[in-house]
Write a structure and sequence with these properties.
By secondary structure, the protein is mostly beta strands. It is built from 5 helices and 32 strands.
């Protein structure tokens, strides 16, 4: 009997400790409440004032800061004249697909005068994400940073930086962005390129009427600081650098990476990169700068450069505060070698559990196309090359959004006729993807086609760029998931030889993959999050043209493997 007591006491002590730890964890996890009012606000850039759609009158919008494990409750009130939704880019949204945000995918839009409350919990993610509108081209100005700190009492896997600064790279049109995309949709031509790039909403010293408001980032000599760089641009991959300073990359897309040092970053729209910067140069002012990485040969792009100023504060005399900042050298706009050297350096900090056995082996082509002018259409509606209309597709299907129901709603309620589940697992026709493609393959079919995945399926997707019309780098984003990028390369993916390049030990975990120009990338993930999840090119011009598809991930067995019930205030179409 005594022996049993002596065993029971340590066990009860252990249970007591476990309960204490559970309560401690629960106590440290907070719920953050925010109100987002979508409204038109006068914003002056490049000498001209525009009635710009903003959140709470701020451009960029508010930065949200949480800890891993916290819950966000964001009430969005639409006081603008356009429909709107908000997407929490990179948040896993485990079982909370109703809060993901893409219009007509997981919800109907929030109509003018209406509201919707997004509720979701951050689970196992740390680093930099962001939020943005996911309705038409509103995200040109409706965006902000979402910063996830480690749980309370836990530390970064690198020395704690003295300061942390979000660096949001954006694009600015000297026009209403909604008018820009509507004109392109009407004419079938490519939309007008932006007039400026911005850093934290400001174009910087190299643009007219801008130098008085250039973003200044103060730092003190001897500090090591963290820059959280986000490409919130609409249609352009960007190079980013800081004059005379090295950058140590420590995270990307809210996952830590094996640290590496570089002088230049390349980010596709949607991607984030966390870098440590040592403030170790002679006290002065140094430009941070970003300009286009434009990989599509011959295609027009915004060939300007945005700047902010890194200013040494404490050790900088009043004279040096007036000196012209040191200008950095940036790669040429078509420097694919530098872009590739950067993207291929990413590794996870340690060995990771990459799915080895594959249940779904998928091959998706991603690229542009040209539709012949529809019979009876006027020439003014077919202003693409040689009287055509621009389009884009994955596996020759140009994605069409529904309009009466969201896909998730149709799936959840079993509403027929909204979508089909026959998205092809491989291209309908095999061809020389990056070669001289027959014109008969330039016209995709239109459809709302989903690909069904069983809960827990181990998925591999080869993302193969095409040279139809023109090849370019495509930043492919998957909602609701992170994935391992196990390889990338140029030309056509060859399953016989390219599998030898697979990194199944420490590949990086991302939510947006830059598929190389005229090349391919291979990703793997486990389908552990039920719902309908959009996969699309994050160049908004391309998603407008249909470069998207969606996965329908079935529920698992238990409640914890099933989609939550829809919230009562879910917008109706």
């Amino acid at each position: 009997m005594e022996a049993i007591k002596s065993i029971a006491n340590p066990l009860s002590s252990l249970c007591f400790v476990c309960i204490l730890l559970l309560f401690a964890n629960a106590a440290s996890e907070k719920t953050h409440y925010h109100d987002f009012v979508i409204q038109a606000t006068p914003v002056k850039r490049l000498c001209k004032t525009h009635n710009t759609i903003t959140v709470n009158g701020q451009f960029p919008g508010p930065t949200l800061e949480v800890n891993n494990g916290d819950t966000l409750v964001v009430n969005v009130v639409n006081r603008a004249r356009y429909n709107v939704t908000i997407h929490w880019h990179g948040v896993r949204q485990m079982r909370s697909g109703w809060a993901d945000g893409p219009e007509f995918i997981t919800q109907c839009p929030i109509r003018p005068g209406k509201s919707y409350t997004y509720r979701f919990t951050i689970q196992g993610q740390e680093g930099t994400l962001w939020w943005h509108a996911h309705s038409s081209w509103l995200r040109a100005t409706v965006y902000g940073a979402l910063i996830i700190h480690p749980k309370e009492g836990e530390n970064y896997p690198f020395p704690k930086p003295k300061r942390e600064t979000p660096i949001l790279l954006g694009e600015w049109w000297d026009a209403n962005p909604i008018d820009v995309v509507r004109q392109a949709t009407r004419t079938g031509a490519a939309p007008n390129v932006s007039d400026a790039y911005t850093i934290n909403g400001q174009p910087g010293d190299l643009y007219k009427c801008s130098s008085q408001d250039t973003t200044i980032v103060p730092m003190n000599s001897g500090e090591t600081n963290l820059l959280r760089v986000i490409n919130a641009g609409m249609n352009q991959e960007l190079f980013f650098t800081v004059a005379n300073h090295k950058l140590t990359v420590v995270g990307a897309d809210a996952s830590y990476v094996k640290p590496f040092t570089t002088s230049v970053l390349m980010l596709g729209p949607g991607q984030t990169t966390d870098v440590l910067i040592k403030v170790d140069q002679p006290p002065s002012r140094y430009y941070m700068a970003a300009r286009a990485y434009a990989s599509a040969q011959g295609a027009p792009f915004d060939n300007t450069t945005t700047t902010a100023i890194l200013e040494y504060r404490t050790s900088c005399s009043s004279n040096c505060a007036k000196t012209k900042p040191v200008f950095p050298s940036l790669p040429a706009f078509n420097d694919t070698a530098t872009a590739t050297a950067f993207t291929t350096k990413f590794r996870s900090p340690r060995k990771v559990e990459v799915p080895k056995e594959i249940d779904e082996n998928l091959f998706f082509t991603v690229g542009l196309g040209l539709n012949n002018c529809p019979r009876g259409a006027r020439s003014r509606n077919c202003q693409g090359p040689n009287g055509t209309r621009f389009t884009a597709s994955m596996n020759n299907v140009s994605f069409v959004l529904p309009s009466n129901f969201s896909l998730l709603q149709a799936h959840h309620k079993g509403i027929p006729g909204v979508f089909s589940t026959d998205f092809p697992a491989v291209p309908p026709v095999k061809f020389d993807y990056t070669g001289n493609v027959s014109r008969s393959l330039w016209q995709p079919i239109r459809g709302t086609k989903l690909y069904k995945l069983n809960y827990g399926a181990r998925v591999q997707v080869v993302l193969q760029g095409t040279s139809i019309f023109t090849a370019e780098n495509h930043p492919i984003h998957l909602h609701g998931y992170d994935f391992y990028i196990i390889a990338e390369g140029f030309g056509n993916f060859n399953p016989k030889t390219d599998t030898s390049k697979f990194n199944l030990v420490d590949p990086p975990l991302r939510n947006t993959a830059s598929v190389p120009v005229n090349g391919w990338a291979v990703i793997r993930f486990v389908a552990d999050n039920p719902g309908v999840w959009l996969m699309h090119c994050h160049l908004d011009v391309h998603i407008t043209w249909g470069l998207a598809m969606a996965f329908l991930v079935e529920n698992g067995v238990s409640e914890l493997e099933s989609l939550e019930a829809p919230p009562v205030d879910l917008p109706v179409c």
